[in-house]
Write the structure tokens for this entry.
Amino acid sequence: MRPLAWLRVQLCVRLVGIALPLGLGGCGETSLHASERLPTETDPSDPPDHPAPSDDPQATSPTFYVEGATLRDRCGAEVVLRGVNEMVAWSDDDGFSALAEIAKTGANAARLVWVSTEAPARLGRALEAASAAGLVAVAELHDGQGDFEALPRLVEFWTRPETVAVVVRHERSLLVEIGGGLGDVVERSAWEEGYRAALQSLRAAGIRAPLVVHAPGFGNDRARLLESGRAILDADPAGNVLLAFTAWTGTVPAIVEDLEAFAAARLPVFVAEFSAYSIRECPTFRFDSSPFLEATARLGVGWFAWSWGGVPNSTCPGALDMTTDGTLATLTDWGLEVALEDPHGLSRTSDLVRPPCGP
């Protein structure tokens, strides 16, 4: 929980437009790029039940990991992701400017929207930007939205040797979201089998970081995620999977009810996307974020607001952007609400993942 004095400083930053640097150390090192040190090699064809110990003497795991319904850092401390989406695949500087600004909100994570047509080396640059900002990165492939047939193509991107090298280099502070919102209406057996094969392929390629499986129905089918969640978790040879969904459709009470159902089932889940409006009615149907944020704080559920605005939204222009130019000084009403003003927003509930087991 952030102290109120820290919040007052952030509000002053908002009002006068002062850039406040966020100084965070690396994991057991003085550099902010501690994630670039390669871990000890293991046989990717035989992934362990639990990650092998890290070469950092203060850590027990080389990566973040899932235990029950909880995400933990490399030293075993619970981590609740609180962050912002940014479409870094289309940014001019691979996200360096935007991610540094996002960190000033108090976020501990950023969801990096990426596409499989971009080079893995550029993704590595974006992950360096997240590390430099002290943010846990969730790298998500966005170009399979609504198309479950895209899953093999996305798996091919993640399992390329050059992509695996990037992921391994940054695995200390990285979650890999295989694809966001794949499929519209997908049969349960096909969806479960598709992701079972995908999880096994990524593990066989040598990826040890937590993997994220996103709900079908453009990310909104929470019922499928609930009914198939346990099967998906059991399908990962490394036992290191989180579930995710988007909150673009449905009423806030219905979403909260489903969050409580995930908690009761002890399924690890976070909300990958939500914004100021329901996407299908934007800008006429306002998303009532306050009770939603209260529920996520009460249940310890992570979330990522959509979206920062360094790369502006083309859908419902202006209404979904948290800033007008990607800087904290230009927070919109929506951005100000979710980042600084709501009692359960970023600045009030986001605990930094600190050394020795942070980014």
User: Anything to note?
Assistant: The mean pLDDT is 86. The radius of gyration is 19 Å. The CA atoms of residues 215 and 222 lie 6 Å apart. The first strand starts at residue 65 and ends at 67.
